[in-house]
Design goal:
The chain is an alpha+beta fold and about 400 residues long. The chain has nine helices and 23 strands. The chain folds into two domains: about 150 residues, Anthranilate synthase; about 220 residues, Anthranilate synthase (4-Layer Sandwich), CATH 3.60.120. The strands form two sheets. Strands 4, 5, 6, 7, 8, 14, 15, 16, 17, 18, 20 and 21 form a twelve-stranded antiparallel β-sheet that branches. A hairpin with a 6-residue loop joins strand 5 and strand 6. Helix 1 packs across helix 3 and helix 3 crosses helix 5. The longest helix is centred in the middle third of the chain and has 19 residues. The protein is globular and about 60 Å long.
Length: about 400
C-alpha cells in the first residue's frame, strides 16, 4: 500500500524533523499492545489540502499554492469528504487523516498524496534518543507548575452522586464522567512530548496529529471503527474493564459493564448492517498491555449496500464505551453535568484510504496542545455501586500518573 518506507535510524530522525516542520502532519503509531494489533506505523507530510469546520460548514484550504487559498462551503462535511475521496480514487497511495469531535461539533481532515511507512524498531531507538524531557518544555520552571481542573473535588463528588441518583431512578444504567485538567506552559515541543507519552504508555492506536489549531497526542488502546471497503466488513472493539497486569479474571462489575456496551454497539451496527450479519465475534477477551490488562470485545457485521459515510458515523458516533448506556440518555446527562465541552476528547482520529477503507481510534489517553496550554482528560464509568470517594481517588491518581509520566510534576 505505502510505497515509501523508512528503515534506517537516521531516516527516522529525519522524519521526526519533517513532522514538526510541516504545517499539517500526522503519524499513526502502533507502538505497543497485542502483536496482532501493532501493524500500522506510517506518517504524512505537507498535505495537498485540508478541510475543517462544523457539520454543515466547511473551510477548504488548498495548500499547493504559494499563498494557501481558503474557501467556505455550506454543506454536510460527510458529503464533502465523500466527494473528495471519489476525486482522489485514482491515487492508491492517497490518504485522508483527521478527527471528528465527540459530539460531531467540529472536524479536521487533511489529504496527503502519499505517506511513509516506518519500521517500529528504528522508531523505538530514535524515540529513546529524542525524548529528552527537559527539551519538551524549554524555559519553564517546573517547580512552579500548577495543574487546574474544570471542577473541584467536591463538585466531582456531587456529580457522581447525581449520576447514581439517575441510575437509581432507572434513567440510565451507566455514565462515563470526565474531568478536564490543564497546565499552562510555554515553548512546548509537542512531538517530543508525544515521544515521551508513547514510551510511557505504548498502545496500538496511537497518533501524533499536528494542525494549525491544535496538536493531538494520543496513546489510545481502543479501536472505534474499521471498515474494509471491498468486503463491506465493519468492526468495533469496545474496551470496558481495566485490570492489574497480573490479573486475568474478570470480576462481575467489569463483565456486566462490557456486555452492556457490547449490546449497545450491536444495536448501533444493526442500523447500518445487513440483517443477521451483526455478531459479537469475541466476548470478554483479556488483552495485555505494558502496565495493565483490558477487557475487550469485538463486534462485527457487513454493511448494507450503498451506505454513506454520514450514515455510518451518525449510527456509531460516539462510541458507547465513552458515553454509557443507554447512549442517548447518557449523553444528555453528560451534557448537563460536565462543565466543559469534550471537543475532540473521546472523539475519533483515523484515516480513510481513497478506496474507502478506514480505521479510527477513540481519543482517550490523549493530550491536546494549543496556545501554550496542555489539556488532558480523565474519565471513568459510574454505575449503581460506584463509590463517589473511590471514583475521586481513582481519577486523582490517574491525573498524577500522567503528570509524573510526562515529568510535569512540581
Amino acid at each position: 500500500m505505502f510505497q515509501l518506507k523508512l528503515k534506517e535510524e537516521n531516516e527516522a530522525s529525519l522524519a521526526f524533523a519533517k513532522l514538526q516542520e510541516s504545517p499539517v502532519s500526522f503519524w499513526i503509531d502502533s507502538s505497543g499492545g497485542p502483536k496482532d494489533l501493532c501493524k500500522n506505523s506510517f506518517y504524512g507530510l505537507n498535505p495537498k489540502y485540508y478541510i475543517y469546520g462544523s457539520l454543515n460548514k466547511i473551510n477548504f484550504v488548498n495548500c499547493y499554492r504559494d499563498i494557501p487559498l481558503e474557501c467556505l462551503y455550506r454543506m454536510s462535511c460527510f458529503d464533502f469528504l465523500e466527494e473528495k475521496i471519489k476525486e482522489e480514487k485514482n491515487n492508491p497511495n492517497g490518504i485522508f487523516a483527521g478527527y471528528f469531535a465527540y459530539d460531531l461539533s467540529d472536524f479536521f481532515f487533511a489529504y496527503f498524496d502519499n505517506c511513509y511507512s516506518c519500521e517500529s524498531r528504528s522508531l523505538d531507538r530514535v524515540t529513546c534518543k529524542e525524548q529528552g524531557l527537559d527539551s519538551c518544555f524549554h524555559g519553564n520552571d517546573k517547580t512552579n507548575l500548577h495543574l487546574t481542573s474544570n471542577m473541584s473535588d467536591s463538585e466531582y463528588l456531587k456529580k457522581v452522586k447525581q449520576i447514581k441518583e439517575e441510575i437509581k431512578a432507572g434513567n440510565v444504567y451507566q455514565v462515563n464522567l470526565t474531568r478536564e485538567y490543564s497546565v499552562e506552559l510555554k515553548n512546548i515541543n509537542d512531538l517530543k512530548l508525544y515521544l515521551k507519552l508513547r514510551s510511557v504508555s505504548p498502545n496500538p492506536y496511537g497518533c501524533y496529529f499536528k494542525t494549525p489549531f491544535v496538536s493531538i497526542l494520543s496513546s489510545s488502546p481502543e479501536e472505534f471503527l474499521y471498515i474494509d471497503s471491498q468486503t463491506k466488513y465493519i468492526r468495533t472493539r469496545p474496551i470496558k474493564g481495566t485490570l492489574s497486569k497480573n490479573v486475568f479474571e474478570i470480576d462481575p462489575k467489569n463483565q456486566a459493564e462490557n456486555i452492556m456496551i457490547v449490546d449497545l454497539e450491536r444495536n448501533d451496527l444493526g442500523r447500518i448492517c445487513e440483517y443477521g450479519s451483526v455478531k459479537a465475534k469475541k466476548l470478554l477477551e483479556i488483552e495485555s498491555y505494558k502496565h495493565l490488562n483490558h477487557v475487550v470485545s469485538t463486534v462485527e457485521g457487513k454493511l448494507k449496500p450503498d451506505i454513506k459515510l454520514k450514515e455510518i458515523f451518525e449510527a456509531m458516533f460516539p462510541s458507547g464505551s465513552i458515553t454509557g448506556a443507554p447512549k442517548i440518555s447518557a449523553m444528555k446527562l453528560i451534557e448537563k453535568i460536565e462543565p466543559t465541552k469534550r471537543k475532540a476528547y473521546t472523539g475519533s482520529f483515523g484515516y480513510i484510504k481513497t478506496d474507502g477503507t478506514m480505521n479510527f481510534n477513540i481519543l482517550i489517553r490523549t493530550i491536546f496542545v494549543s496556545e501554550g496550554r496542555i489539556v488532558f482528560n480523565i474519565g471513568g464509568g459510574i454505575v449503581a455501586d460506584s463509590s463517589p470517594e473511590g471514583e475521586l481517588e481513582e481519577i486523582n491518581l490517574k491525573a498524577k500518573g500522567i503528570m509524573n509520566a510526562l515529568c510535569l510534576s512540581s
